[in-house]
Amino acid sequence: MSRSIDDQYLNRYFKGLTIVQLFLGYVFLISGLLVNLIQFLSACFIWPFNRALYRKINYHLATIIWSQLTFVYQWWSNSDIVVYIKPDDLEKLCQENSLWLGNHRYEVDWLLGWVVTQRLGLAGGSKILGKQSLRALPIIGWCWYFTESIFLRRVWSTDKSVLERDIQQLVQDYPKNYNFTLFLSCEGTRYTEEKRLESMKIAREKGLPELQHHILPRTKGFVLIIKGLHKHITAVYDMTVAFQTPKQPELSNLLIGHQCQAEAFIRRIPIAEVPYDDEKKAAEFIQKLFQEKDKTFEYFVQHGTFDGAGNPKAVHLKRKKQDLIIELACLLLIGLPSIYLFIKFLLFASIFTQIIFFIIGIAGIVGIRLMIKTASRPKLPLNSTKGE
């Protein structure tokens, strides 16, 4: 027992070392920028002539970047997520374009969406609706941009036309057998009790039931998106995530190897049951969905699990080795040659040059952490548009 505790301590100590963090950050930086470069070239020379081929290429390029992030969750920190979904829904999910509606309660709940899609083999087709500033983020933001995520300003008068244009562009010439998942957060911002109470004032004014665990969803963006997508997707998926341990997980803890245990409750709503041609009914649909989502989360609060909430556990939806293999490949192809060059640098470079190098390296790892942390707030603008 004591040896096991010692091993865990040494494991966390190793993963928390600055040099280890710098090395992993460096590999992610170089591999990510190389992927972005290939994406840029494909946008210049392939997109104008063959959009289907462009999307196939970027499907696999995006998988390289997203897999390095899911590697951190599933392998580096040895964290897990248990998914509760009906077997028939799970089978359909792997074979269709879909819209995913999630809750936004945690710093890393966005990462769980990638983890689930990675296990399903759909990570390369995952897209978001995010605030416009996110597309300027190197690696993650640029990858979102090249894979046709939609970015908004939060000004409804201009965002309406952007949504209409980008949705129509997304569904044109989309290749068969390359399914996409579009993630939306109708709450518009990460949950806090203060924000919930503020939104419940609006709920009371509108005569809506109060939510205990969510912010009142905003509906304009959803109404417009479902109107544009209803002919091109076959279902909407309601995904509610919750963490058993720790209660409030942080990305910084994952990076140093702290383990998390999460659960997700996913239910499928056929597109035929989603009103798209009546704005009032579509708005009522999303309000009702969040009332049901709130009850599902309340079940988790009371029982500490979604087991028994209505869906069976997806026992075969375990982590796959794809992201581990991709990470190891990046470490071998980029990391090992860099170690050799680094040793030569230490042996022959001047002290002044070495100091400058280490300052740049530390700044780089801090920048990567800030970049990922910023990317963890991407779902705001769809439903936070001013003027709603």
From TrEMBL:
<keyword id="KW-0808">Transferase</keyword>
<feature type="transmembrane region" description="Helical">
    <location>
        <begin position="349"/>
        <end position="372"/>
    </location>
</feature>
<keyword id="KW-0812">Transmembrane</keyword>
<dbReference type="InterPro" id="IPR032098">
    <property type="entry name" value="Acyltransf_C"/>
</dbReference>
<keyword id="KW-0472">Membrane</keyword>
<dbReference type="GO" id="GO:0012505">
    <property type="term" value="C:endomembrane system"/>
</dbReference>
<dbReference type="Pfam" id="PF16076">
    <property type="entry name" value="Acyltransf_C"/>
</dbReference>
<dbReference type="InterPro" id="IPR002123">
    <property type="entry name" value="Plipid/glycerol_acylTrfase"/>
</dbReference>
<feature type="transmembrane region" description="Helical">
    <location>
        <begin position="20"/>
        <end position="47"/>
    </location>
</feature>
<feature type="domain" description="Phospholipid/glycerol acyltransferase">
    <location>
        <begin position="98"/>
        <end position="223"/>
    </location>
</feature>
<feature type="transmembrane region" description="Helical">
    <location>
        <begin position="324"/>
        <end position="343"/>
    </location>
</feature>
<dbReference type="GO" id="GO:0003841">
    <property type="term" value="F:1-acylglycerol-3-phosphate O-acyltransferase activity"/>
</dbReference>
<comment type="similarity">
    <text>Belongs to the 1-acyl-sn-glycerol-3-phosphate acyltransferase family.</text>
</comment>
<keyword id="KW-1133">Transmembrane helix</keyword>
<keyword id="KW-0012">Acyltransferase</keyword>
<dbReference type="Pfam" id="PF01553">
    <property type="entry name" value="Acyltransferase"/>
</dbReference>
<protein>
    <recommendedName>
        <fullName>Phospholipid/glycerol acyltransferase domain-containing protein</fullName>
    </recommendedName>
</protein>
<feature type="transmembrane region" description="Helical">
    <location>
        <begin position="59"/>
        <end position="76"/>
    </location>
</feature>
